Amino acid sequence: MQPPTSGADPYYPSGQSAYPASGVPASGAPASPSSGYAPTSSFPAAGYPSYQETPGYSTTPLPPPPPGGFAGAPGTYGAQPPGFPPPPAPPKRNLLPLILGIVVALIVVGAGCFGSGYLFGKNRGEAAADSGPRVAATPKTTTLGSASPTAEAPAAQDGVTGTWKGTYTCNQGETGLTLTIEGQDSALTATFEFYPTSSNPNVEKGSYKMGGNVTDGRLALIGTDWIEQPAGYEMVDLSSSDFSGTTMNGTIDGAPGCTTFSVTRS
């Protein structure tokens, strides 16, 4: 079979050309644009209208939102539109002036009461002064040179107080003695120290405290507390009625085998 030489297509008896001339579009078909796409208005999607033809659609742009940042109608968010700070709180009441006023009033009232009381007391005092002689509210001052209410105890006699040294005799034989007396006749304190002598070197050393007084010219001293007590030794008491400014002689009391003592002021 020979191919057709004319524009007639043997399969289309209508006589339409199966191969249209180059650059000529087929009947009923628009020419393709240079970009390769047909205009939207001419070629909508099958079964869908173009967006320009959608009912209710508007191409007019929306207005900008209000300054509050929301496009709601006025009054939607209350009296204060959003985006604004709340109104400031009412100022607090300052109570300082009120407190100062109360303090000043109290001071004024107190000053008035004090002044009234002072004047009242002053007037009463003046009236009492006019009615008769004034009585002293304090005792009289003691005149210089007058005797004091209580007389001091007399000092110890010169023959009692001081430091005395000598010897005394007891069972151990002659023993060295240093007697130190202090205080007054009514209350004396003393220290009794004993030690060996050249004639009796085997005597122990020791000491103790004494207390006593002088009554009717007689000295009496009694041992009270040990200061240094050697083994086998006991405290002894002293008494004397023979004392002067330089010497004192007496007896050893309260100890069997003891006799006398004799000391000299050192």
UniProtKB/TrEMBL annotation:
Compositional bias (Polar residues): 139-149
UniProt keyword list: Membrane, Transmembrane, Transmembrane helix
Biased composition (Low complexity): 17-42
Disordered: region residues: 1-89, 127-160
Ranges that cross the membrane: 95-120
Keyword Transmembrane: yes
Record's protein name: Uncharacterized protein
Species of provenance: Cryptosporangium aurantiacum
